[in-house]
Amino acid sequence: MAAKGNWTKSLFIGLWTVLNFTRKLFFNIIFIVIFAGIIIAATSSDNDPLTVNANSALYLTLNGKLVIEKEGIDPFEQFLQDALGDEPENPEVLVRDVVKVLENAQKDRRIKALVLDLHGLTGGGLDKLRVVAEAIDEFKTSEKPVYAIGDYFSQDQYYLAAHADNIYLNPMGGLMLEGYGRYGMYFKDMLEKLKVTTHIFRVGTYKSAVEPIMRNDMSEEAKEAEKQWLDGYWNQYKQDVAAARGIETSNFDETLEGLLGKFEAAGGDFAQYALENGWVDALKTREEVRQELIELVGDGDNRHGVNLTAYSTYLKVVNPPLPAIENNIDKVAIVVAKGTILDGDQKAGTIGGDSTARLLRKARLDDSVKAVVLQIDSPGGSAFASEIIRQEVLQLQQAGKPVVASMSTYAASGGYWIAASTDKIIASPSTITGSIGVFGMFMTYENSLDYIGVHSDGVGSTELTGFSVARPLAPEFGQILQRNVENTYGNFLSLVASSREMTVEEVDDVAQGRVWIGEDALELGLVDQLGTLEDAVSAAAEFAALEEYDTQYVQHSLSAQDLFWKEFFGQAMTYVGKWQFSNADSALVNEFKRVLKEFSVVNRLNDPKGTYVLCLPCDVR
C-alpha cells in the first residue's frame, strides 16, 4: 500500500512539474516576442517615416462604428491587437478624427481626390453620419473629386456614399435601403421555464425597457410610441440622401410589392436595380475602378496599385501623439458622456457616476475653463449615478461656469436626466431623447433552486433580514420598491419641470417613458435648439462672454502604471511586424451573440437601489 501511495504521489508531482514548466515556457515565449520586437526597432533602418504621397488620393476606410469616444482598453491588450494586426471585436472610429482628416485633406495640395471605401463601416447613428457627410461636402468645395466604391453598400454606408461625386458598385454587388425598425428579443417564456421569478416596478405608460422580461411581444403602447420616432428617423434619412443625390423622397421603396416590381424589371439583379433606381452612377469591376483611379492620380506601390494615402497614415500625420501644450487662453471644456450610465468608476466609453462626475469636477477646478459642453450619447442607466452627475453640473453652474448639453445619437432616460439642468440643451434633429420614466427590476431564483432540490431557510431579528435572490420577495417589500420607483419618477418630473420652466403636469404629458426624436423634442420644449457640437460650444462661449477661446476635451486620467505601459507598448508597437488574421462567424452564431448581449444589458446594471432610468429600445436597426 505504501508503494502504491508513493507511486501516486510521484505521478502528481510529475504532472505538476510538467504543467509548471509549460506555463513558464508559454509566458517566456510571449516575453521574448515582445522583447524581440523592441530589439528589431532599435536596429532596423527599414521603417519608413509616415508620409503623404504627392498627387495622391486619400483612401478613407472607416472600419467600425462611429463614436464620440472610444471604449477604454488595457494598454497590453491594445499592444497585442496592433502587433497581430487583429481588429477589436467591436472596432470604433472617432468622429472628430474623420472630420479632422477631411478638413486637412481639403487644403492639402498633395491630396488630389477622396476615395470612400466604406465596406467596414457599421453605423453609429444618423447624427454622426451627418457630421461626417457635412465634412465630405466641405471637402468637395475644394473641387477635388470624391469617389465612393464598393461591392455592397449597407444603409448607413450608403448615407455617406450618397455625398460622393461618383458612386461605383460592383456588377455582382447590390444595395437595399430597408428603413429603420426595432425588433428585440423577449424572454418571458424562457424565464418561466427556468422557474425564475421576476420582480418589476415601473412608472410610465410607454416605459417599455422591461417588456422583454415580462412579455413575449411588444405592447401596443410601445408599438405606437416607437413607430412615431422610427418614422421620423426614416424621413430624415430619406430627405438627407435625396438632397445629396438630387432625387425625390418618393424614390425610396417602402413596400415589398413595390420593391418586387422594380427588382423584376431589373432582371432579378440587385446591382442593376441600384443603377436603374438612381442609387449609383455606374457598375464597375474592381479593375475598372482601379484603372480610373490610376488615370487620375497614377499608380502606386501598394496592394491596390494606385497612388493612395491611407486614412490611418494621414490621421497619424495630422494628429501626432504629442503632449498638449498648455496656454493661458480661456477654454470651453468638452466632457464626453458616452455609453450606459453605471454606478461607480467606469472606463472611457461607459458613463460612471463617479468617473464622469470627476471629469466635470476637473473642469470646475481648472481656472482656464470658463464654460463646459456636456456631450451626451447615452440611453441612460442608473438613476443614482445620473443624479451624481447632475449634481456636479449644478456645482459647475454655482462656480459661475455655464454648462450646455450637446445631444448625440441618444440622450434618453438617464441621458436626459443629466442634461435637464444644463443652461441650454442642443440636440441633433435625429437625437433619440425623452424616455422620462423609471423602472426597477431584479430576479429571484427560489423556484429554480427548489426544482433542483436546494432550499433556503433561517431566522432573523427583524422581518427586514433575510432578503436574498434564493428566497421569495415579501409583498410588503415589493410595495416599498414600487413606492421608491414612483418617488424617483416624481423627482425626475420635478427636476425637468424646474429646469425647463414647465409644470409637472406638462412634463408628465410628454414623459411616461415615451421616446422622441430631436425635432419633436424641440416642439415639446424638451430641448432648446437643433444643432451640432460646434453650436453647443458657441453657445457655451456666448454664455461665458468669451470672444477668444480654445476648446479642450477633458480626458480620463490614467494611473501611473497604465501610463507607463501605454507609453512602453506604444513605442514597441512602432516596430513590431503585423500579421493579418481572418475571422468569420456564422449568421446563427451572430444571432446567438445578439440574444446574449440584449439579455446581459440588464444584468450589467448596478444601481444601489435597483432603480433605473434606461431606454433599452432606443437602438435602431
Concise summary:
The chain is of the alpha/beta class. 45% of the residues lie in helices and 18% in strands. Among the domains are: 56-177 and 253-318, Alpha-Beta Complex (2-enoyl-CoA Hydratase, Chain A, domain 1), CATH 3.90.226.10; 331-439 and 474-554 and 566-618, 2-enoyl-CoA Hydratase, Chain A, domain 1 (Alpha-Beta Complex), CATH 3.90.226.10.
Task: Explain what you see.
With 621 residues, the chain is of the alpha/beta class. Among the domains are: 56-177 and 253-318, 2-enoyl-CoA Hydratase, Chain A, domain 1; 331-439 and 474-554 and 566-618, 2-enoyl-CoA Hydratase, Chain A, domain 1, CATH 3.90.226. It is 45% helix and 18% strand. The strands form five sheets. Strands 10, 13, 15, 16, 17, 19, 20 and 21 form an eight-stranded mixed beta sheet that branches. It has a six-stranded parallel beta sheet with strand order 8-6-5-4-1-9, with helices on both faces. Helix 5 links the parallel strand 5 (146-153) and strand 6. The radius of gyration is 28 Å and the shape is globular. The termini are far apart.
